[in-house]
Structure formats: structure tokens, C-alpha cells
Amino acid sequence: MTNDLDHFVKDGCEALEIKLVRDVEDIENDDISFPPEMCHQVFGENENVFGYTDLKIKLYHTAASLQTYLGISYTDKLDPAKTGGLKPDDIEGCMKKVLAPGYLKNIDLFVSSLEKDKNFTPCGTLKHSFTVTPDDGGDKRTFEVYFSETTTPGFLPYHERLQTFLMWFVDAASYIDVDDDQWTFFTVFEKYQSSEGSIRYATAAYSTVYRYYAYPANTRPRVSQVLTLPPYRKLGICAQMLQAIYSHFMIQPEVRDITVEDPSEDFQRIRDYVDAKNCETLPAFQPAKLRNGFTTEMATQACSKFKINKKQARRIYEILRLKNTNTSDKTEYLAYRLDIKNRLNAPFQKKKLELNRLQKVLKPEEFAATQTAAGLGETQARLSSLYRTLESEYRRVIHRLEHY
Asked: Are both 111 and 162 inside the same structural domain?
């Protein structure tokens, strides 16, 4: 029976086609389609959809307001009467759990909604605008970053459609509680001229930031969700959006520092780039001072000027010191490596001290039972591995600093 039903199993990521539609012609333009990076949050852990042959799931969004169209097609569907009651998956039921109410299933109604998109203007306050010239030599493109709150007129219905993208591109994503007015939003739009000559907008990226309370009368904004839609990646948009977030909160005296919630490797790299570019302008981070090691002055200036916390300031110091280290000079390079390894080794040293204390108060057999610590050789190997990984990450940030 299992082998007979194999042709009814389809990879959800292969079946799902996503589009950001600007004009009617885009509906038939396969070049602008893009697949999800994951779908286990919708179709289950194995990401398969069962019960259909030649399954295609079309998830189209108008580029500006993100009005959504859901189309499901197939050539054959499992008949429970012929399979002992085995039923096909309820595709729309799964999709309905993550889509905003009001999605369309009629393509003609979706085409009509494209007309309304022509009059779309972004919600919120314009915070930053910038232009990008693609690496492939294409035309210069203009983008704008807008700030919104839960009380911004018209924003929440738009955000309800926007957040759907998290399910396809951010692992372990969840929808936020928009009843909490401490949430703030930064949305990036491409601003372009239509073929008719009118100004139009297209959604490109967004981020959510939560304003946490910090004793006694301060706030600590935390960047939470960050997403650049696939057609707009590799354009430097996320870095520009993060700088806009910084610029918004840096001037607020009650803000203690700006943090990031569980950043991915890619986002941490962008954060490092933005922070390093900013800190390069500070007196404490000039090359002559970097060679003397991380100082309180660095932490203080990074926090007071750019709201960067001490841990991140230390990381930026390490990046900028490497950038200004002559790695051909063995003495200079060794001094840098030892400085970083001393920091990386601190947790191991702390654990060693804790074990020494235990050894003094426990019986030999009891102490032996607690031994899970690695030997000296293994610890040194782990330390070297940590350092190599870290330097590799730092060099990627430095490359971007030097070329962009």
C-alpha cells in the first residue's frame, strides 16, 4: 500500500510557489517566483503534503499591500473510499492557520486588488531613505524605511499579512501579541516609478522591536524579528534597516542600550558590520588605542553614542583590532590571537576553579563522579577551534567594511 501511494506524496517546499505581484503580467511571469526555505511550521516536520498528484500551491501577494491569493491545483486526489478511509491532507486548512483573514481564492478578484495597490502609501513615519546600485550593474533603486507602532492607522491589518512570510523563512518563528503596545515596527519599501509614470511602493523587508523596561526609568529596545524578502536580498537592505532602528532609538535619552534577541549567524554578521562601521568613528576605537586592548572607554563610548552594550562592544573591538593588525607581523598577530584566546578561555578557567573548590569539599569517589570536564589537550583543541571559527567570521565582516 505504501509503495502504491508514493506518487501522492509531495515536498511542500517544491509544491509552494510564492510571488510578489506588481502588475497583471507578473501573474504569468515565472521568473519572479520564489520557493519557501521551509514549511515544517505549516505542513509538519517532514514538510510533505499527502494525497495529491501534480500538486501546485500558489501563494501570491500584491507587492505593496500584500493582499493574498491562495490557489491549489492538482491532477488527481486520493479517494478515501479506495484506500480504507485514508484521507488527503487538508491543504487550505493548514494554510488558513497562518494566513491573514480575507485571503482570496479567485484569481480575478486578486487581479482587481492590483488596482487598489496603485494607491498604496506606507503606514507610519518615514525614517530613512537610501539608494542601491545592484552588483550586476542594474539601475539604481530607491528604498524607504518607515516606523510604525500598534496604534499607527492601518498598520496592523497590513502587518497581519506581512508576518505570514515568517513561516516560510524564519525557523521557529511565532506571531507576536499585537495587543502589547510596546511593540514597534520598521518596514522597508522599494519606491519605484510605474510604467504609467506614477510612484509605487513594494514591500521589501521588516523588523519588529520590543521596548523592554529597564530599572529605574529606562527602556532597552530589543530587535526581535528581522526578515528581508528573497527578491530583495544581497542589496544591503537589512544593514540600512538596522541603522534606521539605531538612529531612531539612539537619540532617546531613556534608552539604555539596544539588544538583539537570539540573532542568527547571518544577522549577527550584519549587526557586526553596522556596529563596526559606527564605532570606527569613535576616538576610543582608533588603531593606536585598539592595540592596547579592550578598555572601559571603548564600552562607554559605544554605549553613549550608539547604545551598544558592553558584550557587543567587546566583539566590535576584536573585529576592528583584527582589521588593523598586520598579520604578516608574527609578534603583532600573536598578540592579537592571545588577547582573543584569553577571553575565550575565561569560561574554561572558571570551570576549573569550580572543580578545584569541589575537590576540597567532596570525597575522592564523590568528586570522581562529577568529572565531565575535558582534559587539557581537548580543551586547548576546542579553544583553537573556537578561535579559528571566530576569526573566519570576523574576516567576513572586515571584507564588507573594506569593500562597501
From this structure: no
